[in-house]
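Justification of resources, computational component.

The compute hours requested in this renewal are based largely on the per-chain cost of generating structure records like the one below. Each record pairs the submitted sequence with a full structure-token output. That output is archived, and it is also reused by downstream analysis tasks.
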Amino acid sequence: MLKSICRSARLPLCLGGGLGLLAAALGFPLAQYMSSPEAGLGGGVPLPLLLGMASAMAALFSGWVVSGFWERSISLLASYAQRITEGDYSVRFGEFSGMPELGGLCSSLQKLLEVREKQGRDLRETLRHFHGTFENAAIGVFHLTRNGGFQRVNQRFCGITGHPREGLLRKKWKDLACPEDSLFLEGRMRALFEEGLDCFSVEKRLVHASGALVWVRLTATLMRDEQGQPEYAIAFLEDVSARRHAEEELLRSEASMRSLMDCSRDSCVALLDLRGEVLSIHPKGLALLRTDPTEVCAKGWVGLWSVSENGCVEAALEEARIGGVGRFRGQRAMSEAGMTWWEVTLTAIP
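The structure output for this chain reads:
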């Protein structure tokens, strides 16, 4: 199209050459008269004819030169336009700065392209930061579509689930959920996309690629489009298996301790902190020591024993603090039975 315009531009320019030829044709009779004996000017080359021929040649030549220049200029503009449509905003219009017809337009285009080029750099920088944050996060991050499919996942999420990235992008969230937790999680996701819930956070189990169950903390937030409609959910996944297993182990230890206390008949079982403060004593132990929680809180573990035994009690506590087994033989005054002797063993609990 641009080349067609260029060719059509030759028409008015070549008309100048045609008018020059017309001037030569009109000047020919005049030249004949002026060169005739009647004119008294004598023979020779007719001047008007020479002038007409010269103007015709000049018009034709200038039309050819100018039309060729415009064709090259438009072809250059066409190549620049092609580069711009391909996203190359580094085009410069310096070749046209001295042309009154195109200089102003090209200057405006240059400023616009510089703005677009800066916007492109800023956008690339923003995308680079987003990609770095997304991929290098210490927790799993993923985008979830409305139908429960994975739109984007980071490497940490792949590590938590044990699945490769390509495999996860072909799966849905329910494929990873523990069967016992699947219905609950589906309900939460449905509330997120369909019932106006903006976010939620839960601790549930996922099935690892190896078949093992992984405890995770899932936090999901709904992302909306420009019209405010649900578009996708961005979710964060943290592996909390170690903490959950530690909590379960602590519950088992406490259950074992309660069982031990319940089974003891002639012994006292107490739980102390590292400073020697009494955290708890089984009711049977309180009865055997002939004491009550008020005295225990007021005196502490060391104060329950005879003052002469304080050194032994402190030494046993220190041995337990460093992971050993502390032992001492202590006396305790009983109002009815007098002084009674006790064999005491202190053991640290991991």
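The mean pLDDT is 75. The two ends are 84 Å apart (CA to CA).
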